[in-house]
Amino acid sequence: MSAPDPTMIDYAALALDIKRWARELGFADVGISGTALGHDEAYLERWLADGHHGEMDYMARHGTRRSRPAELEPGTLRVVSVRMDYVPPGTRDAWDVIGDGEAAYVARYALGRDYHKLMRNRLQKLAERIGQAIGDFGYRAYVDSAPVLEKALARNAGLGWIGKHTVLINKRAGSYFFLGELYTDLPLPADEPASAHCGSCRRCIDICPTQAIVAPYRLDARRCISYLTIELRGSIPEEFRAPMGNRIFGCDDCQLICPWNKFAQEAVEPDFAPRHSLDGPKLVDLFAWSEDEFLKRTEGMAIRRTGYEGWLRNIAVGLGNAPTSDVVVDALRARADDPSAIVREHVAWALSRHG
Predict the structure, then answer these.
(1) Which pLDDT belongs to residue 87?
(2) Residue 37 sits in which domain range?
(3) Which candidate in 144, 271, 285, 338 is catalytic?
C-alpha cells in the first residue's frame, strides 16, 4: 500500500464522508477500527487448540494473518466495517417452519442471493468513491473471502458486541446482518468499541438443539448444526441427527431466541428475498430435486456451498425426523440405492426411524 500525503487530507471529515457514502450504498451501519486484536488472537488460539473448529482446517492454516490485519494486507492502519440487514419482509415465521415437521428449515441468511459478491461490489464502490475524493490509496475489500476476524473488528468499530452465542449483536438492530470490511492504509479516527449487553441471559445456550455453545462465548463447531449441515463433508454423527429436526441448511435458534432481535431490522435489499419459496418448502419436494435442478435453483445462492450430496444427506435427516407418512417413506425408499454412500447411510437411518 502507498498512502496519500497525510498533510493534505482532513481525516476526521473523510471518516464522516465514508460513513455517509456507505449508507448511500445500502449498508445499514458503518464504523472504523484500528488493527489491534491481541485478546481475540489469544481466544482464537485456545479455540483452535481445543479442536473446536472441527474439519475447518483453514481456520488454523493462515496463522496470525487472521488476527493481524497488517500481515494479511501490508500497510493496513484502519478497518472500515460495514453491516447489512438480511431478513426480508414477508418471510414465513421461522418458529412456524421449525415446528412444521414436513417443512425444511433454511437459515434466514441463505434464502436469497449469496451476499458475498453483492457486499464486496458495494465495498469496491465505496473504495472508488474514497479514491475520487482523495486520490489513490491502499485498500482491500473482504466479505468472508480471507482470514479476517470480522466480528472482533466490527465490535471494535462500534457495530455491536459478540454475544454468548459468538454472534455479533447490535442493540438497535439485533443480529440478523452480514458483515464486510475495507482494509485501508488511511489513518482515519477510530470509533469507540461497543460494550456488551448480554448480562445474565443464557437463552441462546439453553435452546441450542445440540448444545454447541459449551460455555458463554465459546462455540464447539463440531456440535453446531450450521457446521454439520454446511462445513462437514462426511457423515453427520448419529447423536446429532435427531436434534437437527428439519434444519437442512444452517440453524438460527440461538438468534431466534435472543431478546435483542426484537429490534431486528428488515432487509431493504431486494436480492435477499427468498427464492423458490425456500422460507418453508416441503422436505419431500426438495428431496426430489435432481442434481441439475439443485445446481440451477441454487445458482448465486449460499446454499450451493453444501453441494448436492450434502443437500440430500441433510434432507434425509430431516425426513427421518418428520412425521411418519407414506409420502415420507416413499421419498426415502426412492433414494435407498443412491449412488452416494453417504446419502444411502442417512436414508437408511431415516427409514429406521419410521419402522
Answers:
(1) 92
(2) 6-97+112-184
(3) 144
Look up 144 and say whether it is catalytic. yes
pTM of the predicted model over 0.90: yes
208 annotated as belonging to a binding site for a ligand: yes
175 and 226 inside one domain = no
Both 163 and 215 in a single domain? no
What percent of the residues of the chain are helix, what percent strand, and what percent coil, each to the nearest 5?
45, 10, 45
Same domain membership, residue 168 and residue 25: yes
Q: Tell me if 45 is assigned to some domain.
A: yes
Residue 85 counted as an annotated binding residue: no
Alpha helices, DSSP H, located in 73-209: 94-98, 115-134, 150-156, 203-207
Give domain status of residue 322, yes or no: yes
When divided into structural domains, the chain yields a total of 2
Is there a binding annotation on residue 351? no
How would residue 8 be classed by pLDDT, with cut points 50, 70 and 90? Answer: confident
